[in-house]
Structures are given as C-alpha cells and as structure tokens.
Amino acid sequence: MSVKLLTYEKLAQCETLVMGVFSDVREVPVGLPKSMEGLIARVREIGDVTGKADEVHVLYPEEKGSCRLILCGLGEMKKWSLPNVRKALGLGAKRAQALKSKEVAVWLETFAGESGNLAEVAQAAAMVGLLALYQYQELKTFLKPEDKTTAPKLFLASRNPEACAKAVDWGEIIAEAANYARTLANRPGNKVYPQILANEARLLARQYSNLAVSVLTQPQLGKAGFGALTAVGSGSSHSPVLIEIKYHGDKPKAAPIALVGKGITFDSGGICLKPSAKMEDMKFDMCGAAAVLGIFKAVAKLKLPINLVGIIPAAENLPSGTACRPGDVVTSLSGQTIEILNTDAEGRLILADALTYALRHKPSQILDMATLTGAVVVALGHAAIGMAGNDDTLAAEIHAAGEESGERVWRMPLWDEYRDLLKSDVADLANIGSKPGAGTIVGAAFLEKFVGQTPWVHLDIAGTAYGDGGSVYAKGATGVGVRLVVEWLRKKLAFSSL
Ligand code: BES
Ligand code: ZN
Ligand code: ZN
Questions:
Q1: 439 lines ligand 1 (CB under 6 A)
Q2: Which of 158, 135, 151, 132 has its CA nearest to residue 4?
Q3: pLDDT tens column, 255-269
Q4: Which of 148, 300, 420, 450 could serve as 355's disulfide partner, Cβ 3.0–4.6 Å?
Q5: For position 278, which CATH number holds?
Q6: Where are the beta strands (DSSP E) in 113-160?
Q7: pTM, entire model
Q8: CATH number assigned to the domain comprising residue 120
Q9: Residues 222 and 264 in one domain
Q10: CA 316–ligand 3 middle distance (angstroms)
C-alpha cells in the first residue's frame, strides 16, 4: 500500500473523501462544488453533525464522481491537538474501510484548521491511514487474490502538496515499517520460529544495502556461554538463535545505539505451563523482536545519520523432556548464575544474555523492548508502555517521544526494595521476585543487572503490542515501538545538528 498526493481540483471526484469538522467552526471549507458545500452546510445547520471529537458521519452527495463524504469530528479548533487529529483520522479511515471504499482521500486542510501545521497533519494522515487500513490476510485461502488487496488506496489532498511531500514520505515509511513488524508478529508460532526470524532479518539486509545481519546458532551460543538463552530454548525442537543486525549511517567509529528485542516465538510458559485460555496470544511474545526489525527497516529507508546495532535473542519456550526445570541454575553470558524459579519468566533470561552481548559493542545507550510481564497490564492497561531504566535523561527523552508519536510511555521506579526481591538461596540471583507485586519493576530490576553502567531503558510492551481490534488497529499486533523509537531518533538527530 502506498500514499499518493492529490491535487486540490480532484476533491469533488474522490470516491470517498474524508474531512475534518470542528465544533466551533461552522463555515464550510472552500474547495468543493456548491452542491456539496450546501449538503455539508445543511447537516451542520440541522445539528446532526456537531464536530465533536469521536463523531463520524457519512454523507452521500449527488455530485458526479463522488460516492461518499466522511465527516470526522475534531472538537474545538482552539483546542487543536495532533493526538485528536490522529484519532479522528483513524476513525474516518476505519469507517471508509468498513464501507468497502476502494479509494480514500483525506482533505488535509480540513484537519489542520487554522491552528495545525499542514506537514504534521500530512504525516499523521499518511501514518494513521496506513496503520488503520492494515489487515493481516496472508493465511486466508478462501479470499481470492483480487479480494485480498481490499485495503483501499490512500490519497492525501492538499492545496500545497509540495509542503507535505517530505512529511508524507516519512509517515509512509514509518507506517510501513510498523505494518511489517505487525505482519511478522501476527504470523503464528508454527510459521515463525527462531530460524525463521533470523531469515527475516537476513532478507531485510538483502533489501537494504546499509544493513548487515549475522546469526549465532545453537552450537555457537553453547560454546560462547549463552547459558540463559540456551536454557530457555532447550525444550523446543527449534533451537534458539541470536540475531545481530547493524546499521551504519554515522562515522564507522561512532558508538552505536543498541536495540534489544525479546524474540520468544511462542511462550507456553515451559514446564510452568500457562493456562490454555488465550495461550494462542503468546505467538505475540516476539513483538519486541519484530519492533526492532521494523525500526531497522525504517532507519535504513530514512538513511538516518546514526549507528545502530540490533540484538534479537530468539527462542521457543516449550515444555519437554529436555526443557529447563524450576530450580535449575544456569550461568549467563555475564558470568552471573541464575536460579530459574519460574520457567515462564523466560523473557528476562534471554534478554540477560542479549544485553550482555550488546555491551560488547560499547553502545552509547541501550533500549530493550519486550512483552515481559502480564503485570504491566495491571499497572497501565493497554494505554501505555511500561518503562524503567537507569538514566533520567534517556527516560525523559523516551517519554517525550511517546507523547509526540502517540505511543505513550510511563516510567516506573527502580529502587533497592525491588532489587532485593531477586535474591536467590543458591545462585547470584533468581529469575522471579521472592514476594508478589510490582511484577514489571522486578522484571526490569533483573535486566538492570546485565547492563552495567551504560544508559539503558527497558520498555515493557506486553500491554500495547497487540490488541482486540477496539482501537484504530485491526485485531492483532500493533507494531508498537516502531513509531516511538523512530520519533526518538528523529528528535535526537534534529537536536544534535543544531
Ligand atoms: N510473555 C509473558 C508476559 C506476557 C503476559 C506477555 C501477557 C503478554 C501478555 C512472560 O514471559 C511471562 O510469562 N511473564 C510472567 C512473569 C512471572 C512468572 C514472574 C508473567 O507476567 O506472569
Ligand atoms: Zn513467559
Ligand atoms: Zn514471555
């Protein structure tokens, strides 16, 4: 799917035209034929279309070439905000899709009003449009090939397309990277196991010449001392791998930023088996890994002037005669011994080795993304990513990027009270807390033991990585993390070039 800019004269001929309407502005925006203007004026006059936020109305003009007008409420123009615009665009796009539109055009000026920046709106429209129209259909054989591409074509109409072009490119690249992450994550566990994830990374490196991928396989991991990662993967016939992906956009010697993503391709819980209800959702336990790959795709396309290294520990957590057991003690790559008290707290184990490995690249900063704990849903629901870290500046930057990108982040504290819970009777540390409560923080406190002094933040995306279809996202993976991290990098680079 791609976005095309449309000239203003074509507005009246759009099959489906999506417009924004404000509650405190009654005038019909200029640009449509009189008959369509009249129709909009009338519904406003009657009061059926108020322009309140979250309102979506469909009108059917008689103008030749035009099939439907979708009016999206934006609330008051004097309280204009980008998140409101994003939400309205998402609702409008979803309605257009539900009505089986083949072409959807968004009239950008009507969303910007007099308060918004047109380029910002253009980027949001490209991004939200593509995210809202995404569907995962590759495994539905009853759909004929021609029906599979039912996602409508997206057009953006503006009086000033030149001013929007670059923003639209960015929006499109970021959304497509997020949608790529969504597809990887939506694929079931029998189709995506560690070696497949490695192949996907290799494929990405073949597509973009500024990316390089290397993969450590089971014998190499064993020899090198990845005791935690190999223990988690030991119950599955699909052996674990460590995927390393590099992007060079800065001077070769400049320290890279490390991105680490949890790649549990299926989490049954292992010997500490999970209940069967919703266990199928555990195919999403590699959403951190998918986000890392998505970020590399976006950065490679945008050619950002930075160096990045991505580390993806990938394993399948299954019970079997060769699986690790509760009580086992493993030696992690860092040399620290870990008592595995719960085989379902496997994410932190594979991340421990991945973080240690990341340090070998002497990164300036480390970000890890992981569907780590169910507890983050208890704390924050599905509205925000849970964050913890050892660096206030980095945490503040990520929080700000969350507000900007719409992928919101909320920081939790890391105090000794939580660190103390990880004491083990027999090893250097245990993989779960000795008392219940603060599950997300305890998970982060565990990871902290493996990052040394390097500025680091951990992002727990268990509540945001997939959804039930209630938001602008279709049911399934959301690609969370891609928009957030690309926004963070964009901001960072803009600042450093000042
Ligand atoms: N993959 C799960 C976390 C998860 C839960 C992700 C729900 C998405 C939705 C993780 O490996 C896990 O099982 N964590 C345990 C940790 C506990 C045993 C300390 C959990 O959250 O229950
Ligand atoms: Zn688990
Ligand atoms: Zn897990």
A1: yes
A2: 158
A3: 999 999 999 999 999
A4: 450
A5: 3.40.630.10
A6: 153-157
A7: 0.97
A8: 3.40.220.10
A9: yes
A10: 9
